[in-house]
Design goal:
single chain; 360 residues; mainly alpha; name from scop; 2 domains; 4 strands
Length: 360
């Protein structure tokens, strides 16, 4: 039954296998990665409120300075277009300098949160125009999909958590809030700043905890979406390595070409050492090419027969030496010089060949 189930999965195309490294790389290039937006939001919220605590005195000084400048300087100016333009540029520059630290922190944390999750990734694939995105049927499927339902439930749950934390912080400080009208302005601003940062940091910590679970879910969903069937893996292997049938034909063609080159060298050999029927090794000695004799062709059975046949047709001397033929075939590759261990035996064979040629 187990074997039958595996076979059915193979032919049905069911995606049960983990994605291959190539599939992961391809989906990453398309911008499809395991990423939780909640991680970005939680980290951004947390560090921004931490920054509020650090730069709180700076902001207080800047805002009170702007308040004083507006009511002590700008109100005494004559209202003209040029004066309004100056006031507008002055106030805008003042506000830009005031919020610049927060904007810088938000930019750095936003980039860091993405790098932590997916690393450095630059792709324009998600920005490309795709017709299926404006297809109402595909859009309806995305809206009413399981993923959309999960995202809706997550959003409702996050709103409930943040609302509960905010209400708890306010309720815990309700007595102080009621007494704000009897205190000083500095005290009220300090209390409000402390309360707001407490609510923000508490909500950010809660969202960060939820973000850990959301990232785990996004990771699981990503792995599920990029699963492959056995046929997908087989097709990918074919695309990378090539069709096995084509590769076998190429290798066969290469073997044929190598065989033809080897056979073309036999007429130039000095001697063919044989087994005499099973092995044949063609030897040549050329001082201009090598310091020692080298093998130009070798083979067994049918190839050995062809080597002997070509040698006979071109009057190449054939010498029967069974141990030497076997040893040369086993240890020396085509085009390589012989080892020192064969020098004596091969020298005796070549001396015999040269003697026969001189007599002839």
């Amino acid at each position: 039954m187990s074997q039958l189930r595996l076979d059915l999965q193979f032919f049905s195309g069911e995606k049960t296998e983990k994605a291959t490294p190539k599939k992961r790389e391809d989906t990453r290039k398309k911008g499809q990665v395991a990423k939780s937006q909640d991680v970005n939001t939680a980290l951004l919220l947390f560090f921004i409120f931490i920054a509020f605590i650090i730069i709180g005195p700076f902001w207080k000084e800047r805002l009170t300075g702007l308040y004083q400048k507006v009511f002590t300087e700008y109100l005494s100016w004559e209202i003209t277009f040029d004066q309004l333009h100056i006031i507008f540029i002055d106030v805008l520059s003042y506000i830009a300098i005031t919020i610049a630290p927060i904007m810088g922190i938000a930019l750095v944390i936003g980039l860091a949160a993405n790098i932590i999750q997916v690393g450095f990734l630059y792709t324009t694939e998600p920005l490309q125009m795709k017709l299926d995105r404006i297809n109402p049927i595909s859009g309806a499927k995305r809206i009413f999909s399981l993923r959309a339902l999960v995202e809706l439930l997550k959003s409702v749950f996050k709103i409930a958590i943040v609302g509960t934390i905010t209400f708890y912080v306010l309720w815990s400080n309700k007595d102080e809030i009621m007494m704000l009208s009897f205190g000083s302005l500095d005290g009220a601003l300090s209390f409000l700043g402390q309360t707001v940062t407490t609510m923000g940091i508490s909500a950010a910590i809660a969202l960060l905890i939820l973000a850990v679970f959301d990232y785990a879910y996004q990771r699981y969903d990503y792995e599920k979406n990029i699963r492959m069937s056995k046929q997908d893996i087989k097709d990918e292997y074919k695309n990378i390595e090539g069709d096995p049938l084509i590769k076998s034909k190429i290798k066969e063609r290469q073997r044929q070409m190598a065989m033809r080159r080897m056979m073309s060298e036999i007429p130039h050999a000095d001697v063919v050492i044989t087994n005499p029927t099973h092995y044949a090794v063609a030897i040549k000695y050329d001082e201009t090419k090598a310091d020692a004799p080298y093998v130009v062709a070798k083979g067994v059975d049918y190839v050995a027969f062809k080597i002997r046949d070509i040698a006979k047709n071109h009057n190449v001397v054939i010498v029967e030496n069974r141990p030497l033929a076997r040893a040369l075939y086993a240890e020396i590759e085509i085009g390589h010089v012989i080892n020192e261990t064969f020098y004596q035996a091969v020298a005796e064979v070549l001396a015999y060949v040269y003697q026969v040629e001189r007599k002839a």
